[in-house]
Design goal:
The protein is of the alpha+beta class. It has 5 helices and 13 strands. The strands form 3 sheets. Strands 1-2-3-5-6-7-10-11-12 form a 9-stranded mixed barrel.
């Protein structure tokens, strides 16, 4: 009986010694709690930014002529609608904002104000057209189609690989990467201010990168627009924004339609 008590005592002491070690091992092996998207940000995209118009000037800075679809892979149906665009009718119908939907908004010369509304939602306000895009980290599309649609966002980092080993370099906050944005639930709008259309079936994927160089910061936005109704292929563009120090130049303006230049009338050679 004495040996039995001794055995139990030794066993109890052994268990007491081992349990803390097992608990510590479990804690070391357990994954860390997930960070909120704001805390997990791979890059800082917040602040005020201004569009750099160093390409596609004739389509971005002025309203192109009706029917000018150069550079956009429109199909026959899209071309037909673009050639029939009537700015006066859009104005009369109160459709001044059709060119300010998510499908075309970021190509308009504008300033951006990007900020967190909460730990899982980024807002992009534009001074051109006074629009707001909300980027949702998590959740599912809800509600009806709208001008800005529903944008789902996530931080993305390509796995790094050195030599012949497996890819390494998991995404870590503040270590560089990309903000990926997938937008759906869009109402019909224009890819350009001259009425080149996109439909309610449009989806768009964007990648937002930050570049810092010699004390200046830039955002590079690459977008891929797909529309089975009016496009024969993906419409791919890439534009840049430069960071501004503050809101001194922030000057929101409502949507507006600027008619294209009037073509000069053809002269009859007989009148010369």
């Amino acid at each position: 009986m004495q040996m039995t008590h001794s055995f139990v005592r030794v066993l109890a002491l052994t268990v007491c010694a081992v349990l803390p070690t097992l608990a510590a091992a479990q804690q070391r092996g357990a994954p860390p709690p997930a960070l909120a998207p704001r805390a997990a940000a791979l890059i800082d995209v917040t602040g005020y930014w201004v569009a750099i118009v160093d390409q596609d000037w004739r389509w971005r800075m002025i309203t192109a002529p009706v029917g000018d679809v150069a550079g956009i892979p429109v199909n026959a149906a899209g071309r037909k609608l673009a050639e029939a665009w009537d700015p006066a009718k859009d104005q009369a119908d109160g459709k001044q904002c059709k060119a300010y939907g998510a499908g075309g908004l970021m190509r308009i010369p504008t300033r951006l104000h990007i900020y967190w509304t909460d730990d899982a939602t980024l807002a992009i306000d534009t001074d051109a057209g006074q629009q707001q895009r909300l980027l949702h980290f998590g959740g599912t599309p809800q509600g009806e189609a709208s001008l800005q649609g529903y944008s789902a966002a996530n931080w993305y980092k390509e796995a790094q690989k050195a030599g012949f080993g497996p890819p390494t370099g998991l995404a870590q906050p503040g270590k560089g990467g990309t903000l990926k944005i997938t937008t759906s639930h869009l109402s019909a709008g224009y890819l350009r201010t001259n009425g080149v259309p996109y439909s309610e079936q449009t989806t768009m994927v964007e990648w937002l990168d930050r570049v810092d160089d010699e004390g200046l910061s830039y955002l590079v936005l690459t977008s891929v627009v797909k529309d089975p109704m009016y496009l024969s292929d993906s419409y791919v563009t890439s534009y840049e924004f430069k960071r501004e120090p503050d809101a001194a130049k922030w000057h929101p303006q409502p949507c507006r339609i600027i008619p294209p230049p009037v073509k000069p009338a053809k002269l009859d050679p007989g009148t010369l």
